[in-house]
Structure formats: structure tokens, C-alpha cells
Amino acid sequence: MKKIIAIATIAAFVLSASTASAWHWSSSDITVNNNNGAYVKNNVTTVADTGSNVAIGGSVSNKVEGDDNINNDANGGGGNAAVTTGAASAGSMVENYVNKNTTKVNADCGCKGDVEVNNYNRAKVKNNVLTSADSGYNQAFGGDVKNKVKGDDNENNDADGSGGAASVKTGSADAGTSVVNVVNKNLTRVKKSAN
């Protein structure tokens, strides 16, 4: 009698196991933990510069010393000075993608267990950005005309003409900076179905 009971017990277990297998029956829990920590620091300097130029025109000078000097002239003009610059452009781009979690759980079963997804994200992002475009701080100095005469009976000791012209012409200065921060992005998909 004990032998028959034992056989019946085994048969019942096999039947139960077979049923569980057919339905993928499970009481197990599914747990996913995503733990992220980040510190990002960006120091960005972008400079476009066509400035800080200097142009100085030439000078005309006449210096006469003594007596009875006639027609000691400095004629004409000083030389011209010009500075011409092209365009200056500078650009920078900073992209930070920090702590992105993509979790997909497919539980193809008739499970009674729990599906738990935990996302722990901690981030500190610091951006120090300096953008500068400069076409200034230019200086242009025209030349001088000078006549200095010392003594007696000096005639027609002239400095004629004009000092040289000075000009500065700069192109455009363009600077641009783009900063993109995508921080702590979590995408979780849980699918439970019974086959």
C-alpha cells in the first residue's frame, strides 16, 4: 500500500511539473538596478580676433640751424600706412551625454513574481564657457609735418606737403559656442505576457 501511494505521489508531481512548464509558471522576482554617478566639467574658450592693429603714417620733418639759410625745404608727404585684415571666425561645440540607462525586460511567462527596475542617477555638470569676437582696439596715427628753423636771416625753409595717412580696415569677427547637456535619461520597458 505504501508503494502505491509513493507512485501516485510521483505521478502527481510529474503532472504538476508538466503543467507549470506548459504555462511557464514562476513565482520568481526580477530585479534590475542601475546605479550611475558622474561629474563633468567643461572649460571652453572660443576667441575670434582681428583687432589690436596699429597703423602709423610717415612724417615729414625739416630742421634748419644757423644763419642765412635759404630754401632748405622738406617737400612731399610722409608715407601712408594701412592695415587690412581678413575675417576671423571661431566655433566650438560641447556635447555631454551622461548617465543614460536603457532597460528592457521581457518576461514571457504567466509569472506571479514582481518585476522591479530601479534607476539611481546622480550627476553634476559644470560648464564654463567664454565666447569672444573682437575686431576692436585698433589705432591709426597719421604722420606729422614739422619744420624747425633756428638762426637769423633764414628764408623759405619749409616743410611742405602732408604727413602720411594711416588706416585700419578689419574683416568681420564671428564666434559661436554650442553646449548640449543630456543628463540622467532613463528608458525602461517591461513586458509580461503568457504563452
Describe what is shown at a glance.
The protein is mostly beta strands and 195 residues long. It has one helix spanning 2-23; strands at 30-49, 54-56, 60-65, 81-84, 88-108, 115-134, 139-141, 145-150, 166-169, 173-193. It has a two-stranded parallel ribbon. A two-stranded parallel ribbon has the order 2-7.
Order of helices and strands: HEEEEEEEEEE
Report low-confidence residues grouped into runs of 5 or more.
1-25
Q: Which outline best applies?
A: rod-shaped
Query: How much of the polypeptide forms β-strand, as a percent range?
Result: over 45%
Overview of this protein structure:
This protein has one domain. The longest helix is centred in the N-terminal third of the chain and has 22 residues, at 2-23. The protein has 1 helix and 10 strands, in the order αββββββββββ. It has 195 residues and is mostly beta strands.
Q: Any chance you could write out the topology, listing elements then pairs?
A:
Layout: H1 2-23, E1 30-49, E2 54-56, E3 60-65, E4 81-84, E5 88-108, E6 115-134, E7 139-141, E8 145-150, E9 166-169, E10 173-193
Parallel strand pairs: 1-6, 2-7, 3-8, 4-9, 5-10
Primary descriptors:
195 residues, mainly beta, two-stranded parallel sheet, disordered N terminus
